[in-house]
Structure formats: structure tokens, C-alpha cells
Amino acid sequence: MNTINLQTIVLVIIMDRVSPEKRSEVMSSVKSKGTKLEHFFAEKLKEKGLDYCKRNVKELTGRPDFVFEEAKIVIFIDSCFWHGCKQHLRMPASNQDYWTAKIARNHKKDRQVTKQLKQEGWLVLRIWEHALKNPKMLKWWLTRIKNLAENRKG
Ligand SMILES: [Zn+2]
Questions:
Q1: What is the pLDDT of residue 91?
Q2: Which of 38, 66, 79, 98 could disulfide-link 75, Cβ–Cβ 3.0 to 4.6 Å?
């Protein structure tokens, strides 16, 4: 088990035991900190010479994790748990209604954000947490992003 999964599990246990008010407080603190995954991916982009992108751009819909302005590309890193990856989501044993609804809301919001950004002319890339943890998939994404970033500069 790696750190990220362990953190998620601990978080799920905490969230199961606290009031709804406390839950949303915990949730927003988790979001504002940014994830370790993002930092990891930022390092990889840097190694690939792609660190000129902007991070956590508040001015754009959905506050994308990475933005290549000139190439009009936005990238979101989606955690398997919070964004409801069908392969890896393991529903906690308790409060299932809460978690099902929460994850469904996230999923719906992701789709709306993607749609909105596309309408604004952005290429939207969503990268699953599990893709970052798989060296082959990670390499594929980095190559793809490099090509897209260079070819779409105009
Ligand atoms: Zn996954």
C-alpha cells in the first residue's frame, strides 16, 4: 500500500466519524492543500521540459491543475477515489449513501467542467491517479502532452 492510498483510507475513516459540517471542513482543507499526486506530476513535467505551464489556475472553470496557456491545454489529475474511478473505487463499508452521492456529484461536476472548458476552446486532459502510478502510462501521457503542447502553440 502506498502513501496516497493510506491517506485516503485514513481520511475516509475520519469522515465516517464526524458531523457533516466537520466533513465539509475536512474536505475543503484537503482540496486547498493540493495533492501529492500533483506535486509528483509537476516534477515529471519538469523533467520533460514542460514546467512552463501554470498551476491551479483559479480564473478558469474548475481550477485546472495544470494549464498550457499558449497551446490551450488544461490538465486535471483525478484521484481514483474522489472522482470515482470504476477500476479502483472501493466504497467504504459505512455511510455508503453519503459516499455514493458525494462521488456522483464530483463526477457530474467533472463532466460539466470539461464541457464548459471545451466550449471555451480548451483541450481538456483528465489523467487518472492510477495512470500516474503506472510507469508505462505515465510515460505515454508525458509524451502525448509534450507533443500536444508543442504542436498546438500555433
Ligand atoms: Zn483508478
A1: 82
A2: 66
Q: How far is the CA of 130 from the centre of ligand 1 (A)?
A: 5
Residue 101 DSSP symbol: H
Q: Look at residue 131 in the predicted model and tell me its pLDDT.
A: 95
Q: Ligand 1 mean position to 105 CA, how many Å?
A: 18
Please provide residue 55's backbone torsions phi and psi, each rounded to the nearest 5 degrees.
-115, 145
Q: What are phi and psi of 124, to 5 degrees?
A: -105, 120
- Ligand 1 centre from 49 Cα, in Å? 27
The DSSP result for 39-60, as a single string, is: HHHHHHHHHTT-TTSEES-TTS
Quick one: average pLDDT of 109-125?
A: 97
> Which of 104, 89, 102, 54 is CA-nearest to residue 75?
54
Q: What average pLDDT score do residues 90-116 get?
A: 91
83 alpha carbon – ligand 1 mean position (Å):
9
